[in-house]
Write a structure and sequence with these properties.
With about 280 residues, the chain is α+β, with helices and mostly antiparallel strands. It folds into 2 domains: about 5-165, Ribosomal Protein S5, domain 2, CATH 3.30.230.10; about 170-275, Alpha-Beta Plaits, CATH 3.30.70.890. It has helices at about 75-85, 105-120, 130-135, 145-150, 180-185, 200-205, 215-220, 220-230, 250-260, 280; strands at about 5-10, 10-25, 35-55, 60, 90-95, 150-155, 160-165, 170-175, 235-240, 245-250, 265-275. Helix 1 (about 75-85) runs parallel beside helix 2 (about 105-120), helix 2 (about 105-120) crosses helix 3 and helix 7 crosses helix 8. The longest helix has 16 residues, at about 105-120. It is globular, with a radius of gyration of 19 Å.
Length: about 280
């Protein structure tokens, strides 16, 4: 295994994702919810670079505020690869954070996935995508979709994934000043857990409810306000359990106009939907 192949020191994208719908169709005996959801990437990305280290250590160039190095998902992903393969190489990881934390855009999961995919290549480990997805699942429920790298229809507890093509529209995303606790939403008594299953065709025909909206808005008024403000420009939706809300637009001009109107009041992002992860376009 060599530390001298090209690719070291380059910046690799870790894109954000949106849940274009989220339906809760049941609950297993172990408490896990059975979901139907559609994932699409957007071109809002964290950027990660990797430098070879001779002494086998895995560490961050700079730690994230409020996150212990050992808990950082990029570090956990790199150490997981080493443990799985017996690889004795080291790496220094630098992360440029652009995706807001705690917003339901999957930034931490995406960082972990980019680390798995890129180090698998740089370290010459040759693990399959399926194997990397399985490893990723032990780091977080959303990591496999970022390893998979394509817009997808997901079912079960999120482990059954099918490729889907959805329009690559412009989106405006608002990040309210709150941190939605996903566990709290999924354990709420009043959460709908028996939605009727739909098909991909139903989704494409326009069924894209999110069963978490009501519960989230009751507990986090700022999410409700963001939905109201954004809905003046286009249909506003919640991604996953939030806190971020988004709206899709048919043109960059319409999206940019909404972005300009909202940016004095909200933390807001202008982005474009992507069916293929920018990480795989780079690789």
């Amino acid at each position: 295994m060599t530390q001298h192949q090209k690719g070291w020191g380059e910046k690799y994208p870790a894109p954000a994702k949106l849940n274009l719908m989220l339906s809760i169709v049941g609950q297993r005996a172990d408490g896990y919810h059975l979901l139907q959801t559609v994932f699409q990437f957007i071109d809002l990305c964290d950027w990660i670079s990797f430098q070879p280290v001779d002494d086998g250590r895995v560490y961050l160039q700079e730690t994230l505020a409020g996150v212990a190095e050992a808990d950082d998902l990029t570090i956990r992903a790199a150490n997981l690869l080493k443990a799985e393969t017996g690889c004795d190489l080291g790496v220094c990881i630098a992360v440029e954070k652009n995706i807001p934390m705690g917003g339901g855009l999957g930034g931490g999961s995406s960082d972990a996935a980019t680390t798995l995919v890129v180090l698998n290549k740089l370290w010459g480990l040759n693990l399959s995508t399926e194997k990397l997805m399985t490893l990723g699942l032990s780091l977080g429920a959303d990591v496999p979709i970022f390893v998979y790298g394509h817009s997808a229809w997901a079912e079960g507890v999120g482990e059954k994934i099918d490729k889907i093509i959805v329009p690559e529209q412009w989106v405006v995303v608002i990040k309210p000043e709150c941190h939605v606790n996903t566990g709290e939403i999924f354990s709420a008594k009043e959460l709908t857990r028996d939605s009727k299953s739909i098909t991909i065709a139903d989704f494409i025909a326009g069924q894209h409810q999110n069963d978490c909206v009501k519960v989230v808005c009751q507990r986090y008024p700022s999410v409700q306000r963001a939905l109201v403000d954004l809905s003046e420009f286009s249909e506003a939706r919640l991604t996953g359990t939030g806190a971020c809300v988004f709206a899709q637009f048919d043109s960059k001009e319409l999206a940019a106009s909404a972005y300009q109107s909202l940016k004095s009041k909200w933390q807001v992002y202008l982005a474009k939907g992507m069916n293929q992860s920018p990480l795989f376009l780079k690789l």
